[in-house]
Design goal:
Blueprint (H helix, E strand, L loop, with lengths): L1 E2 L3 H16 L7 E2 L8 H9 L4 E5 L2 H13 L5 E4 L6 H7 L7 E4 L10 H9 L8 H18 L4 H10 L2 E3 L2 E3 L13 E6 L2 E4 L2
Parallel strand pairs: 1-2, 1-3, 3-4, 4-5
Antiparallel strand pairs: 5-8, 6-7, 8-9
Helix pairs in contact: 3-4, 6-7
């Protein structure tokens, strides 16, 4: 379990480590310094210790370097991370070593029937509906609907409207729990393969 000491990177690594430990798995924790260009010492240590899989809480730049340098060292390391790897910049940095890298991201909204019209309009403008695009579109729909129902731009009233009922969007119905998190089904595991992202079935 690696993290870059950032709030986001350490936070996701802490959650994953806790869940693995609750499932009876042994977890070894290690942090690394973000922004470095050479992670060969870290890679060598993992290779020496026989680490076969590493979950990394961090950003695509460093994860790409770690993946590439692990492959160059013949470490036989499988890497899993979260949504920062949903960018072609990761595969550009990791190169061929990106193949087989796993990460979690939200379900592909282009698979929803509700997204067909918005995806077609984006495509006709030479824009992609992939990645965060339809999620951003849905966020605007959710906000606009909540403001309309609240009849005001007042934050607490809009927040109450957000939590009061599900809102139909291009990604399907969106509803929020008491913490304000999206209560819809969460994440899918994806894999990099030949410079494209594919869902792991």
């Amino acid at each position: 379990m690696l993290d870059d000491k950032s709030t986001a990177g350490k936070g996701i690594a802490d959650v994953v480590a806790l869940r693995l430990q609750k499932a009876g798995e042994k977890v070894i924790r290690q942090s690394y310094v973000a922004g470095e260009k050479d992670y060969t010492a870290l890679v060598s240590r993992m290779k020496r210790d026989g680490i076969q899989i590493a979950y990394i809480g961090g950003y695509y730049n460093e994860i790409g370097l770690i993946v590439r340098q692990a492959a160059e060292a013949g470490a036989g390391l499988t890497v899993m991370a979260n949504d920062p790897l949903m960018t072609s910049d990761f595969s550009a940095i990791a190169g061929e070593a990106a193949n087989g890298t796993l990460f979690t991201f939200m379900p592909d909204p282009t698979k929803n029937a509700q997204a067909a019209d918005a995806a077609a309009r984006l495509k006709s403008s030479n824009m992609s509906a992939g990645g965060y695009t339809l999620y951003a579109y849905a966020a605007v729909q959710v906000w606009a609907d909540a403001v309309k129902r609240a009849g005001t731009f007042d934050g607490p009233q809009v927040a109450a409207a957000l939590r009061s009922q599900p809102i139909q969007t291009v990604i399907g119905p969106v509803r929020f729990n008491t913490k304000g998190d999206n209560a819809a089904p969460g994440f899918v595991v994806y894999r990099w393969h030949n410079n494209i992202v594919e869902a792991v079935e």
